[in-house]
Amino acid sequence: MLEFTADAVVRADVFVSERAGMTRSAVKKLADEGRLFCDDVPVKAGHMLKAGSRVALDVPPPRPVRAQPEDIPVEVLYEDGDLAVINKPRGMAVHAGAGRVSGTLVNALLYRLKSLSSINGEVRPGIVHRIDKDTTGLLVVAENDAAHLSLAKQIAEKSCQREYLALLEGVLREDSGRVETLIGRDPKDRLKMAVLPAGGRRAVTLFSVAERFPAHTLVHFTLQTGRTHQIRVHAKYLGHPVVGDPVYGYKKQRFDLEGQLLHAYRLTLTHPRTGERMCFEAPLPADFAHVLEILRNERG
């Protein structure tokens, strides 16, 4: 039984998904089975919690993980039995999805690590947060349920800091700033996300310019929330999409790239068992570094 105390007026599924590191659909499924409680009373996923409400989720014992181990190369920067920090390459999905059942980071981790947390079920064992298939860089994986809950809580409370570098099209006018919008499914294309006037989820991104070029800007981003495609959508919202982005970027691209130049380069967290503050960094992938070299040579 997972137990939490609500600290604001919020939907039960939203609150529990963020605190437990679970998907909202997983929380809803358990709520539909009568396993979600507010002050000891079963409630539906959409129930509005009040500050101080006691929330409990009865998670059944995990069934055997169905994702299969695969001997896929993956760079593990750190691993200790509680957590592992991975430097994910471009082109690798984090977990199985529509039409994709193998070749994912989960498949690689099942082969490489002795155990993974069970909270996110059979398809996404160990996964606390994600980065897009064609985004490179760091993410932390939980090797047991206690570590998973701690890491998910850190992400929800913003004490786990996730920092990115992205090369944007054009010259960003501001040196730094904060973007706060609502993000949800694009009503014109359900495969995309978009900034919405109403009805989406709150998304907050901090940014600062790292380096300027005549027609591009290297920008440092820090996530305050973790919405799908958040940095890519906010970059487009600023009028400067990420270079190489096949979904939100320019149709005509100068560089021959296999995905957006967006890299999760730094991850700072508190170890769930020892309480030690830990910081990890991953160098830019070769294609990203090569484009920067071209731009620096042109700038002179």
Write out key terms for the chains shown.
single chain; 300 residues; alpha+beta; Structural Genomics Hypothetical 15.5 Kd Protein In mrcA-pckA Intergenic Region, Chain A; Pseudouridine synthase; 3 domains; ten-stranded mixed beta sheet; four-stranded antiparallel beta sheet; 16 strands; 32% strand
- Summed up, the domain count is 3
Overall CATH architecture of the largest domain: 2-Layer Sandwich
Distance between the termini: 60 Å
Q: Quote the beta fraction.
A: 25-35%
What string, H for helix and E for strand, traces the elements in order? Answer: EEHHEEEEEEHEHEEEEEHEEH
Looking at this structure, what is the CATH superfamily of the largest domain? Answer: Pseudouridine synthase
Task: Explain this structure.
- The chain is an alpha+beta fold.
- It has three domains: about 1-55, RNA-binding S4 domain (Structural Genomics Hypothetical 15.5 Kd Protein In mrcA-pckA Intergenic Region, Chain A), CATH 3.10.290.10; about 65-155, Pseudouridine synthase (2-Layer Sandwich); about 165-265 and about 290-300, 2-Layer Sandwich (Pseudouridine synthase), CATH 3.30.2350.10.
- The chain has six helices and 16 strands.
- The chain has helices at about 10-20, 25-30, 105-110, 145-155, 230-235, 285-300; strands at about 1-5, 10, 35-40, 40, 50, 55, 75-80, 85-90, 135-140, 160-170, 175-185, 190-195, 200-210, 215-225, 260-270, 275-280.
- Strands 7, 8, 9, 10, 11, 12, 13, 14, 15 and 16 form a ten-stranded mixed β-sheet that branches. The chain has a four-stranded antiparallel β-sheet with strand order 1-6-3-4. It has a two-stranded antiparallel sheet with strand order 2-5.
- Helix 1 packs across helix 2 (about 25-30).
- The mean pLDDT is about 90.
